[in-house]
Each structure stands twice: as C-alpha cells, then as structure tokens.
Amino acid sequence: MNNFVVTFARGFGSGGKEIASKVAKDLGIHCYENRILTLASQMSGLDEKVFQEVNEKIRENGGFSAFLKGLPRARSYIARNEKFVSDDKLFEYQSKIIRDLAEKESCVIVGKCADHVLRDKPNVVSVYIEAPRRFCVERTMENMHVSEEVAHATIERTDKFRADYYKYYTHGNYWTNPVNYDMTLNSERVGIDDCVKIIEQYLELKGYIKS
Length: 211
What we know:
By secondary structure, the protein is α/β, with parallel strands linked by helices. The chain has helices at 16-27, 34-44, 48-59, 63-69, 88-104, 114-117, 133-144, 148-169, 187-190, 192-205, and strands at residues 5-10, 30-32, 107-110, 124-130, 183-186. The protein has a single domain (5-203), classed as P-loop containing nucleotide triphosphate hydrolases (Rossmann fold), CATH 3.40.50. It has ten helices and five strands.
C-alpha cells in the first residue's frame, strides 16, 4: 500500500495534538511536530554537517525517520507573548522536510502548514480540530496548571500566532477555512477518542488502512 500522510491543524487547547498522537500510535506510524522545526532551524542556519547527515539519511531506507526522531524536542515555535514574525528560509527547509517525509513513509504531521505544503499530493488527509473556548480553557488550565486568566490569554495569543502564520505562508488563505481540510471536528461534542475513531474510519474508507 502506498504511503499516506495525515495532517492536523488545531486550536490551542482543543486536544488536536493528543488526537494526532493517538491516531499515529494506533496505526503504528510516526507523529511529527517540533522535531521538524528543530531540523529546519539547523538547516536554515546553513549547518553543513546537518545537511550532509540529512542527505545521507534520506538515501537510506527509513534512516531519515530515525534521524528525525532522534533529535531533541524543540521548544514550540509559538512565541505566546510575541507577534508572528516571518522566517521564509526556515519555512522553506521545513517544507522540504515535510515533503521528504511524505515521500518516504506514512506519518502524521501536526501544524507547520502541512496541509498547504502537501496540497497537491493525492495521498494526504487533512484534519482540523476545534472546540468551544470554555472547553479549551478548561483543558489548558488542567494541562498547564495555570489560572483561567492565563489560559484565556494563552489561547488567544497562540491561535492568533497560528492564524497569522498560516495566512502569511499560504498567501492569504485563512487557517480555519473548512475547505482546506477533509474534515473539521469539534472535539468537545465528538470527544477525543471518538475523533480518533472517526479519522481512522475515514482513512479506512479512503483505502489507506484496513480494519
């Protein structure tokens, strides 16, 4: 069976990252998020050693995945107290990594405008996860151990950052546009685990996985 990629965009606190991780675990494939940024950051800094290693790993069967998984987790690119500032070189390398992954293996990719980067690929399923603010605030308070006020501010700033990021790199498209995705799920109404089931059922319907 050919490789397939599931991309996830998500509102902060919606549980999108958790859903993505569970889908990847169920299917036995990798879930990529901040390690893509780690490698892209190194590459965009023109680190010749990193370029050589990546080129070697891409040529090896499965080696690139192991190389990427072995990188430390990057601190999130979302600067929650700062405005979005573009970095075209970083995005260029990040996009190259995403396209290389899509060619080499089935995987899940969270964020990074992956749905846009892979928009011309036939083997991509794109998902957007959102939920009402109240639900996202409660999850953020629980997961980050912060006050309600801080949770509200974090969600607002982070979602604004993601929206600006998406709009800039897609040349004017907007992040929450349902046309960008195969499906949009409300994680509060559907439930985290049932979102996972629905996505996997869709992958089965499309012929990417077998029951």
